[in-house]
Amino acid sequence: MVYVNVLPLRSVDRALTYTAPQPLQVGMLVHIRVRGRRTVGLVMKVSNCAPDADYALVSIEGSLYETPVVYEDNLALIQRVAGYYMCPLGTVLETALPAFLRIGKVFKKEFFLHATDITATFSSRAVQQAAMYCWLEQHPFVSEAEFRKNFPKGMIFLKRLIEKNYVERCEQPPLEAGSADTLLPLTNEQKKVFGKLRTALQAGQFSAHLLFGVTGSGKTELYHALTAEAKNLGLQTLYLVPEILLSAQALAKLKMRLSAYGIRVGLWHSRLSDGERMRVRQGALDGTVDVVLGTRSAVFLPFKRLGLVIVDEEHEPSYKQSETPRYHGRDLALYRARLNNAPCVLGSATPSVESWNEARCGHYALHTLAQRPSGQPLPKVFLADMRYEKPNFEGSFVLSALLREKLSACLDRGEQALLFLNRRGYAPYYYCPKCRVRLECPNCKSYLVFHKTDRTLRCHICDTRVTAYDRCPACNSPMRLSIGLGTQRIEACLKQLYKRARILRLDSDAASKENDWYEAVLERKYDILIGTQMVAKGLDFPHLTLVGVIQADLITAAEDFRSSERLFQLLVQVSGRAGRAERPGEVVLQTFSPDADWVGYALQHDTVGFLDRETALRKQHRYPPFRRMVRHLFRSFSEKTLRYVVDQWNGFLRKNVSEDVEIMGPAVPYINKAHRYWRMHLLYLTPHETSFLPQLQNLRQRFQMPSNVIDILDVDPTDFR
Ligand code: ADP
Ligand code: ZN
Ligand code: ZN
To answer: What is the pTM assigned to this prediction?
Structure first.
């Protein structure tokens, strides 16, 4: 008999002790009873000596699988998530383990059949065997299930064929063998970067790399070459991509490219079936998958020999999970790489300020790709100053004269255009049409958002409020309220102007229903695409030569200190969609704030300039990454209770927390009510997260939170709505 510590897969932190009749391994899933209820738990520790418990130990009720489902590196990662993101270990386990594992689902192993090269000879009596052999020859690597469908009574004959070595039964069909010459010869610039990354790969140690390359400079190509190199060294690759609308298509494309190099790819994303998940997971574990290409939760997968971690588009906000555990996929990828002694490559055309700062400090190696192998220059960016435009459609500013002119020319050339609408976290705001004054919170530099009910301008971070002005404080002209455009409105305007153009609205039902719209665009069945941030990334259409950005302004209420960064990233990404093939691209930015500092950088494609300035600003205001931020969100059905409890907590915290912690709020976030819950939040900024996080957790445990108020801690928050 052994004693095991088992962690129930629930929102609890403590493991419970049980006995087990047979030896168990750490990381196995077992059935246990907790307060009479049957549940599943993870074995955290196995020991031969009895613990000195003053209660009678009960036995586990059996194990779900014969082998562990979590290994040492995974367990360390899971513990890290629980500790850093302040959430129960059991909850992290729920996220880290696919649902089918947690219920102990078993899958039948699938086999594939193929006729071997041996020249088979059959006696005249073995007609059936001969027929089946012939069929198998015509269907290489057919699955056994498929065979059975065709020959319902054929299993007995199949057995003979296998015994004679005429047919082989294997667990995995080989990939369509690509030859090495499909690897593009790298350019000199790429070669230099590749050489350095290969050295890091060969070192078999953790190292962090920021691959900063303009759109179309061959970052993807380089990831592939690296993955192939890792494979040569007998190492597996974890290749993370952000969750985006296009994910399925983009993933399939990436997979095709990798497969052509003879790399066995396992895809991992939310739309997989349990069976597919199981196969990828098993493949990663037994080493038959060379690379797992997937979205953020792939970071929790077990690998046989993980030797390389790639995070594509590392700046993407969607790497951060928006529900508990609120982990950041990029940050965990780095941690995972550290645990597995692997280099971690973060790639982007517009790195996050966080990663840029690490690179500037020398913590990450910085590799730059400044050229496009196609020789195609970056698209030329034009500015349309909307302050001097007349409304061109039903009283709103949709298309500037410049964009209309360029659009007509583009359509005349028979090329495609993308109109991009920036609507992320749109909130109405007041601005001065003359001197572009847009009111900032004097306290925390967030933008003030207009509230119709009481005509106030409010800060959603620190709760500063001012009465809305009628006239600009600087020049006395009447202030104007921005109203957001919708994609329908843009479509209506375009239909009026370009009667013959074929328009596809990417957020429309049409696009979601029409599965192959991507192909339809490639085949030039559409002339103009209209989309929002959802589609900015990953689009690669050779005939797309014009991009128009409809609202290139900081109109976001949701993101405060990251808003310029996000806007800049979007503009660069969306501009990168234009002119990817032979023809050069053009971009028109329509903005009401042509003097905003990011505009100049965008016009010049000066990402370095922008990032250095943005980093300096963050440093000056001591925003992340120069201090850690934690968002504390509270919600309740009762607004009164909520206010009271948040005030109580605020008072308690301020009295007990270390002095170097700055507390902002309490404030009402932009979304003040959701699903009948009222919402409030506080923000904490600390220079010392290692001491602050445990302190916060400790104080939170000491505070009696009434059961009708729910609170959530979000470490390194990216969303403040
Ligand atoms: P990124 O990921 O940086 O946007 P990609 O890797 O997708 O860039 O490359 C952009 C285009 O340039 C692709 O069509 C790719 O095939 C091509 N390309 C990349 N590297 C090379 C190379 N060394 N030689 C020729 N074409 C290349
Ligand atoms: Zn403020
Ligand atoms: Zn003014």
So the answer is: 0.84
